[in-house]
Amino acid sequence: MIDSALDDRELIDKYLSGDGDAFGELVGRYQHLVYNLCFRVVGGDEAQDLTQEILIRLLDKVSLWRGEAKFGTWLYRLAINHCRDHLRRQRPDTVEMDHKLADPAPGPEQRLEARDLQEHLWAALMHLPVDSRAVVFLRDVEGFSYIQIAEILELELGTVKSRLARARLALAQTLAPVREQIEPVNHQRG
Question: Is 0.70 surpassed by the pTM of this model?
């Protein structure tokens, strides 16, 4: 039985010494985060498969972690690179998106509007270049700092900020017609 109080370095050392349970504990800590990243970057249909591929790659690559960055940051970098490689192997028009909304309490009409807006948002995100999509996801969904994103993506801090600004502008421009369609409906109700 593995002590869940062990830090990532201790778990990795135990795994490299032959303790398979230590790797299981490490996967338990990060599997959900890797899946969320894959889901946001690639889309729902392939997220589970990519998550498994990344965790299998981790078996071989975990010994490469030198501890210069937090393990989670290093793993995010590994996952982003794997998703990027996956998307490069595909034609952009073959990437599909599967998203499910869990929106508590609003009525049916509001749920439909929220779902419609959410679908437009994810479609707009999926049309961003992968590098921009990753920056938006890491900052706006996962809440990483600019410095953490720079570490994860191995970019300069200024590059992270400019990519995020350009991506947000592109999203705003893409979603402007959708917002204009929804806002008059909301004003008519009020």
Answer: no
CATH class name, domain 104-190: mainly alpha
Domain residue limits, the chain: 1-97, 104-190
Task: With a cut of 50, say whether residue 66 has pLDDT above it.
Answer: yes
3-state secondary structure string across the chain? CCCCCCCHHHHHHHHHCCCHHHHHHHHHHHHHHHHHHHHHHCCHHHHHHHHHHHHHHHHHHHHHCCCCCCHHHHHHHHHHHHHHHHHHHCCHHHCCCCCCCCCCCCCHHHHHHHHHHHHHHHHHHHHCCHHHHHHHHHHHHCCCCHHHHHHHHCCCHHHHHHHHHHHHHHHHHHHHHHHHHHHHHHHHHC
Q: Tell me, what's the pLDDT at 162?
A: 92
Rounded to whole angstroms, the Cα distance separating 108 from 8 reads 45
Fold of 1-97: Rna Polymerase Sigma Factor; Chain: A (1.10.1740)
